[in-house]
Amino acid sequence: MSLKRHFQRLKSIDALIRKKATGNQTALARKMHLSRSGLNKLLHEMKEMGFPIKYDHIRQTYYYESEGRLVKALFEEAASENDEMKNNLEII
Which domains does the chain have, with CATH numbers? Predict the structure, then answer.
């Protein structure tokens, strides 16, 4: 599978998890056009990357234990020194 397609899958799963609209494992696998074992591998990989994924047995959906989001791109251009100084001042 290409890296671009893999990243698209991650983004799709991320969006469903943030909406708490995954359904159970079988439903999510179906939505993602994956086998259950393929879904398990992907969820395990996301957890290894730091995604705080949990499962709510009552609501039967995956959710994030803490707030966060998937970054938009794998490569982000470096900011100019002027932009970095402005960003550092905003933090203080």
Answer: 1-92 (1.10.10.10)
C-alpha separations of 88 from 15, 37, 81, 83, 91 in Å? 30, 44, 10, 9, 5
Summarised one tens digit per residue, pLDDT across range 17-65 is: 999 999 999 999 999 999 999 999 999 999 998 999 999 999 999 999 9
Looking up tokens 């995954």, which residue turns up?
22
Q: How many CA atoms lie within 13 A of 77 on its CB side?
A: 4
**Residue type present at position 26:** T
Length of the chain: 92
Whole-prediction pTM: 0.73
